[in-house]
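Dear U.,

Please find below the material for section 3 of the report. The protein was modelled together with pyridoxal-5'-phosphate; I have listed the sequence and SMILES used, followed by the predicted complex structure.
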Amino acid sequence: MEAQPRKRSWAEPFKIKMVELVKMTSLEEREAAIIEAGFNTFLLKSKDVYIDLLTDSGTSAMSDRQWAGMMMGDESYAGSENFYHLEKTIQDYYGYKHVVPTHQGRAAEHIISQILIKSGDVIPGNMYFTTTKLHQELAGGQFADIIIDEAHDPESEHPFKGDVDLNRLQALIEKHGADKIPYVCIATAVNMAGGQPISLGNLRELRELTQKHGIMIIHDMTRVAENAYFIKQREKGYQDKSTAEIVKEICSLTDGATMSAKKDALVNIGGFLAVNDEEIFDKARNMVVVYEGLHTYGGMAGRDMEALAIGIKESILDDHQRARIGQVQYLGDKLIAMGVPVVRPIGSHGVFLDAKKFLPHLSQDEFPAQTLAAELYLDSGVRAMERGVVSAGRNSETGQHNYPKLELVRLTIPRRVYTQAHMDVVAESVEEVYLKREKIRGLRMVYEPEYLRFFQARFERIVG
Ligand SMILES: *Cc1c(COP(=O)(O)O)cnc(C)c1O
């Protein structure tokens, strides 16, 4: 009989040099805080939160090297040394030729949308993202979803739910004509699908199809390294490639990129636009001066650019991604083992609870995901985010709620911030709420702002 290999645990490829103290709260304090916040986790004060899983945006921990880089900030108005370091890092690690720094991702989206989109254009993408879509619309374009159907099904175990349905793109080209499609927007580790990756096989086919029609591919590379790590794990022929090699191959199949460096790239603020085409670069470099700042800082301080250049180099390391994705997976597997309904497979940056299945006795009019996020906070001080009917807003014509198929609570994991013990506390708290789920009552909305209501809406418990 062959001996079974013994299970070997992994651990984070870092040790902790400085800690940030957090407050432990009592149930009474949390009850008061959530009532004051109108049962909306966006309105909680962070000092009342124990484990903050609201978002992975700008919440990661920087390394000692990044902090040392902050001290090397060259704050010259023009020609900062840190810009040239950042530019070279982007060229070396991602392969794009030209770089325009911006203060964060949406600024890069603004610039590229204004340059490439004409009124009446259609911009296909593998699922929408809030700011990306809005900038396309503000430029006169219209977003069209071309992601595969499996991406909308929380139970599908498809390994690459970020893939594009090429037939859908073909149909759009036939309907509108290629000249109405300036580019296809491709996100890696698709955020709104739950951090689901696109495969290199699919991206290569997409490249062929778009090239035939003279359509560019602009890459939303916010989570490119996380996507690359999934390819290494799941796509045939990539097991022996490094995350860094896969990242470069992904980028090589696209013509340019927008980056929110607040995610993958391990900084608290920053972003950029990168393109290969000289003419587009010229226009972008000119536009950034109007909206962001000179083309050698674009809204970032010199020290921010230095921390970003170092963060990029750390983000593409296999050991980093193994721990990063491993931690999210660890929490997801634990919840699955507890029988808690979650979106499968577990994505790159968080675990999504299926609130419809969690609280089946609540109708969507009683805001199950909003309720679940509030209950989780009450139980343990863990802060999550609603992604359901509140986020979906109202239909502008009928005034009725939009009722999305997915009613989710997102537990988003910041990078290098929390330990496995924190993940245990989160899982145990979700389980506790799950065990008493039948007793949970829904919420009633008592204040509703006009735009992006999920940020500021207020609720009360339904009684009686
Ligand atoms: C966060 C994000 C953006 C926007 O970036 P900001 O830095 O927040 O402006 C764009 N696309 C995706 C996929 C994101 O997750």
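For the text of the report, you could mention the following: The longest strand covers residues 98-102.

Regards,
Y.
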